[in-house]
Amino acid sequence: MKILLLLATFLAVMPGSDRTGAILTITGAVSLEDLDEQTVERFESLASHPLKLNLCGRSRLLSSGLLTEYQAASLLDYRSRTGDIMSWSELSLLDGFSPALAKALQEFCSLESSSAPGIPESQKASHDLMVRAAAKGDGHNKPDYSYGAKYNFLLGERLEVNWGSRTTYSDSRFTPGTASVAYYGKGRIGKIVAGDFNARYGQGLLQWSGFSMSSYSSVTAMMRKGTGISASRSFTRSLHGIGADFDLGRWSVSGAWSWPGTALAHLGWNGRKLSLGAGAKAGDGTAFSLDWQAGTASLCFYGEGCWSPADGPALASGLVWSPAYGVKAAALCKLNGKGTQTVAGFQNKWLSTTFDAIWNNSYKVTLMAKPSFEAGPFTLTPALRVKAAHKPGDKNPTRIEARAEGSASWNEWMLSGRYERVWCQGASWLWYAEGGYRSDLSAYLRFSLFKIDAWPDRIYVYERDAPGNFNVPAYYGRGLSASAVVSCKFRKQCLHLRASTVQYLWNLSDKSPKLELKIQYQLKL
């Protein structure tokens, strides 16, 4: 039986294969389970309203979270010397970019030219309204309900308005939610943001609101992209107040105030080969920092040093080396009052490996091989991932994960699957297969089997859902699950339906089944 399950995994596609692969390329995550809701929401928003690379200023490019400061500087310098970028192949030749990154950016960016005829892109308005409802129960008791709504307005690359509110199964109170307004200026005005916003500087020692990957499972994940101040499009609140940044030639100035009393300031100098910054934070944890990024297309040295009266000094510094196309090696060292963390890694087109050690605390090793084969309309992508972690002093100090998965697609048709085993307190396994058809009328069906007898052996699995619903359940127990997702696009409207169930048919103890139904409507104008 197990051999058949392993063979079945190699007849498979990762959920949303093209977009998923692009997200993993840009973030450096090995799988979507490594990310969070806010990050996936940001990519979904960019997929609906692509970033216009030929029309955005530096502040807008950085706040998207897609580019590093070096890449943004390289892009702006190229635009000033040669004009608009007219193809993705042309973008891939710029310093700091690559064919793989250019291909990934196609999912979230566009190349509209400032010289194109018709209404200027800066004056085009778009509206996006989403409403959703969901019910969850066990088929016997009264179900729980949740509701949500989100609205987004864009006026070209100049004005952005966001609002979102929702209830959850555990909290039925409907609140005003989150709201933000952002103006992206020309010349010296970079942006002005009011309402809910994120602030991320350097490598996150001074300030980093929202999610950041703590597990460095790939080389790309080691260096953070300090996006400065950016408007929030998430249901989840980070900072709330007002912020702005200004472009003064090679200098940039950023400042923000967040209720009830946190003030942020950052001064930066940005060159083609070198970027320097100094920041300060007052109120909720006073701190001061210096950050830097220097290098060429093949070598980058980056880092941040920070000091606060409460926690003392801290340092995060790393090096990334790309000796050839598709080959990358990196190292990162982090020091603070709690200890030292050292990370090293290597990757090429098909292989990625990292070693992560926190002195006298924990050790992690990740190895992933993911080749890809294409023949006309047919694509096959098998993958193997092994992860081992050891944390002395824990009740279950060692956890080993082994995952075999694959992907197969033919035009609009896809098939995917995974077999995963975990050894921690005991031994557990999970297998799933998913098939689907992708078009204006899309349909996907997934079936899973699992045997997980101990909570420390639980397995997290990303599952397809409607946009804005980040779904990574933790499987525990013995049973099966099934889900069906249908999306219908007609003109400027889209309807998403999802039905799922988890049945504990041979569990060791009585456990109620789970049933869930979601409906979501989206209107774009």
Verbal overview:
- The chain is mainly beta and 525 residues long.
- The longest helix has 14 residues, at 69-82.
- It has a 24-stranded antiparallel barrel.
- The chain is globular, with a radius of gyration of 23 Å.
- The protein is built from seven helices and 31 strands.
- It starts with a helix and ends with a strand.
- The model is unreliable at 1-17 (pLDDT under 50).
Summed up, what is this model?
12% of the residues lie in helices and 50% in strands. The chain has 525 residues and is mainly β. It has a 24-stranded antiparallel barrel. The protein has a two-stranded parallel ribbon with strand order 1-2. A two-stranded antiparallel sheet has the order 27-28.
What is the count of β-strands? 31
Q: Mind telling me the C-alpha Rg? A: 23 Å
Mean pLDDT: 87
Strand-residue proportion: over 45%
Q: Largest sheet at a glance?
A: 24 strands, antiparallel, barrel
| Shape label | globular
How far apart the termini lie comes to: 51 Å
- Pairing-aware structural class of the strands and helices? mainly beta
Q: Helical stretch count?
A: 7
Low-confidence stretches: 1-17
How helical, in percent, are the residues?
Answer: 10-25%
